[in-house]
């Protein structure tokens, strides 16, 4: 909005020329969403506490301490992230950019699915919310539309870029997937969304790694969408994809504001409203910037959480034995006696290390 309004006066007022710079607008987006979250956070928490009464239902088969310590804490705090993020993006983004809308609408769409899931859990006071098959069907539907738009918005030069898989560590190497890129992209977005959802089990555990991943992909989006830096680094040049930086900047600011209230002991949980939306944002950003494989590295913590659940379920069904004391893996360490802050901070450190490894792929080619 600011971009369209103010850049037209850049010749007359040099100050407005700042709005032509993505770096400036990203900084503005971060500050705006953070302030919105700070200001409206307490009000939203009060409303959620009144409306929800008993708060988020706690799994009876989960860690024993959760039943006492986390009972009564309201959920759906992801609404604070979504509202802050959407308002900030609309204010600072180029609203004619298709990639911006892809990431933003995937975030909103997955947030709506998560909201429905949270609402059913709270209203029924049952940890089981929306039917799993219906949830996946809706997620894949949104993801398919998002991937299709990304394909249409991405130039097919070099050959097969629009429907290709860029290989990290190799300069300008793209594996053409053809029509199969659509289901592949869907798996990236849906997988990312649900992996973040599985990670959201301790106070502050999910939001910080999400912000770390978002910051990493902000840098990637900026470079991939730059006609000078992309060829220099040997990464695919995707014109317009740098605008994704604005959406991710808004996510970071909103995440910082949310963390203020989600820090241990949490005053509010993000719920599926937040976790599904944030994971969807990361997945769609990876597809838009042609860095799907790098997402698995930068978001390796989320991958680890998801894999731990898959391994646990498969092992129990095949052998009747569990590999972990409890899955996802952060609960395994709780069962081993690790304090919640210890698990959270160590997982944050892992997220930082993985982000640095992922970003190194930009140069090591």
TrEMBL record:
One GO cellular component assignment for this chain's record is: plasma membrane
Mind telling me which residue stretches traverse the membrane in this protein? 20-41, 76-93, 99-116, 136-154, 174-192, 204-224, 244-261, 293-316, 343-362
| Any one Pfam family match given in the protein's UniProt record, by short name | MraY_sig1
Q: Which cofactors is this protein said to need?
A: Mg(2+)
Domain of life, source organism: Bacteria
* Keyword field: Cell cycle, Cell division, Cell membrane, Cell shape, Cell wall biogenesis/degradation, Magnesium, Membrane, Metal-binding, Peptidoglycan synthesis, Transferase, Transmembrane, Transmembrane helix
The membrane topology noted for this protein in its Swiss-Prot or TrEMBL record is: Multi-pass membrane protein
The record's top EC class is transferase
Q: What family classification does the UniProt entry report for this protein? A: Belongs to the glycosyltransferase 4 family. MraY subfamily.
Descriptive protein name: Phospho-N-acetylmuramoyl-pentapeptide-transferase
State the organism of origin: Hellea balneolensis
Organism taxonomic ancestry? Bacteria, Pseudomonadati, Pseudomonadota, Alphaproteobacteria, Maricaulales
């Amino acid at each position: 909005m600011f971009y369209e309004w103010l850049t037209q006066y850049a010749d007359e007022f040099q100050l407005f020329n700042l709005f032509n710079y993505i770096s400036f607008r990203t900084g503005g987006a971060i500050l705006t969403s953070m302030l919105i979250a700070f200001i409206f956070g307490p009000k939203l928490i009060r409303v959620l506490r009144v409306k929800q009464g008993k708060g988020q239902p706690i799994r009876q088969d989960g860690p024993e301490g959760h039943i006492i310590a986390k009972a009564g804490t309201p959920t759906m705090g992801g609404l604070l992230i979504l509202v802050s993020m959407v308002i900030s993006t609309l204010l600072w983004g180029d609203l004619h950019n298709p990639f911006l809308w892809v990431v933003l609408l995937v975030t909103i769409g997955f947030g709506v699915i998560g909201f429905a899931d949270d609402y059913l859990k709270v209203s029924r006071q049952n940890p089981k919310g929306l039917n799993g098959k219906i949830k996946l069907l809706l997620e894949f539907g949104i993801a398919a539309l998002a991937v299709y738009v990304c394909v249409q918005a991405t130039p097919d030069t070099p050959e097969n870029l629009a429907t290709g898989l860029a290989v990290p560590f190799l300069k300008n190497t793209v594996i053409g997937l053809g029509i199969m890129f659509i289901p592949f992209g869907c798996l990236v977005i849906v997988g990312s969304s649900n992996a973040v959802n599985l990670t959201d089990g301790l106070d502050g555990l999910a939001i910080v790694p999400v912000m770390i991943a978002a910051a990493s992909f902000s840098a990637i989006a900026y470079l991939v969408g730059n006609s000078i830096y992309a060829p220099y680094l040997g990464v695919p040049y995707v014109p317009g994809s740098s605008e994704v930086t604005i959406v991710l900047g808004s996510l970071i600011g909103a995440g910082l504001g949310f963390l203020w209230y989600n820090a241990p002991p949490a005053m509010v949980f993000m719920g599926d409203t937040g976790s599904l939306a944030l994971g969807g944002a990361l997945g769609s950003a990876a597809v838009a910037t042609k860095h799907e494989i790098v997402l698995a590295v930068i978001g390796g913590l989320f991958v680890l959480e998801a894999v731990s659940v898959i391994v646990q379920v498969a092992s129990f069904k095949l052998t009747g034995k569990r590999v972990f004391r409890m899955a996802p893996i952060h609960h395994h360490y709780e069962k081993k006696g690790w304090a919640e802050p210890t698990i959270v901070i160590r997982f944050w450190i892992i997220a930082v290390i993985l982000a640095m490894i992922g970003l190194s792929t930009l140069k090591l080619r």
